[in-house]
Amino acid sequence: MKHIFPTYKRFPFEIVKGNGVTLTDNNGQQYLDLTSGIGVCNLGYNTTPIKNAVKAQLDKVWHTSNLYNSELQEKAASLLVKDEDKDVYFCNSGTEANEAALKLARKATGKSSILAFDHSFHGRSYGSLSMTGNEKIKEGFGPFVPDIKFAEYNAPDALTQITPELAAVILEVIQGEGGVVNGDPDWLEAVAAKCKEQKVLLIIDEVQTGMGRTGKLFAYQNYNLDPDIVTSAKGLANGIPVGAMIGKTELAAAFGPGSHGTTFGGNPLAMASATAVLNILNDDFLEAVQQKALFFWHYLEKEIQPLELVNGISGKGLMVGIHLKSDIEVGKVITSLHKQGILTLSSRDNTLRLLPPLIITGSELLRAVHVIKETLVNTVIGQ
Ligand SMILES: *Cc1c(COP(=O)(O)O)cnc(C)c1O
Question: For the chain, how many helices (H) and strands (E)?
Answer without folding.
Answer: 11, 17
